[in-house]
Write a sequence for this structure.
């Protein structure tokens, strides 16, 4: 999901050793995630936004956990913002719209792979069939919450990976970023799908 160009984030994503579809310049409601899944034939797909600094090690940890639990949804995580120690994972089910998030310290005390009831699109990974059965909700916001509910209704186990942390560069939770380099491209450039194919 690529609505802007934050170089320290995009540079870290581009070097990951996997094929990548960059959904550039789309609104959340228009993201063609389902189109990508329907018209390609990869065994599994991971989703992440472009405002995270990532490492190959974090992705490798998530993919290894998915190898061990191929029928589950497996996810990494990030802090909500630089000023917030909460992360996009929960230790208990969501009740309606109420989400009680874990702290980063709580996550660091967990085993390498542990259950969560929220998958916050930080390398959230599932098989092609799971994404077909639980398609990207394409709402205007809170797609991750709606997606998690779809996974839950399908009876899928969601597992978090302790070593799958990515660094979310958002400055303040629930506020727009002030740094001009984080300005959105949406509406300023044509929306397009850009492929980066890993040369293995």
């Amino acid at each position: 999901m690529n609505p802007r160009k934050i170089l320290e984030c995009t540079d870290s994503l581009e070097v990951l050793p996997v094929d990548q579809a960059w959904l550039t310049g789309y609104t959340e409601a228009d993201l063609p995630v389902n189109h990508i899944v329907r018209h390609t034939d990869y065994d599994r797909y991971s989703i992440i936004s472009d405002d995270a600094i990532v490492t190959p090690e974090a992705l490798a940890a998530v993919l290894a956990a998915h190898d061990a639990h191929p029928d589950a949804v497996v996810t990494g995580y990030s802090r909500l913002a630089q000023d917030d120690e909460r992360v996009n994972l929960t230790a208990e089910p969501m009740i309606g719209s109420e989400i009680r998030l874990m702290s980063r310290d709580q996550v660091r005390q967990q085993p390498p792979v542990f259950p969560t009831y929220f998958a916050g699109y930080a390398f959230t990974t599932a098989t092609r069939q799971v994404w077909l059965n639980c398609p990207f909700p394409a709402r205007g916001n809170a797609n991750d919450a709606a997606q998690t509910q779809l996974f839950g209704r399908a009876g899928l186990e969601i597992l978090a990976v302790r070593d799958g942390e990515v660094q979310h560069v958002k400055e303040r939770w629930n506020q727009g970023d002030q740094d001009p380099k984080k300005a959105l491209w949406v509406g300023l450039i044509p929306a397009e799908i850009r492929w980066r194919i890993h040369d293995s």
User: Anything to note?
Assistant: The two ends are 23 Å apart (CA to CA). The CA atoms of residues 6 and 181 lie 6 Å apart. The first strand starts at residue 20 and ends at 24. The helical segments are 7-14, 33-38, 56-68, 104-108, 128-133, 143-153.
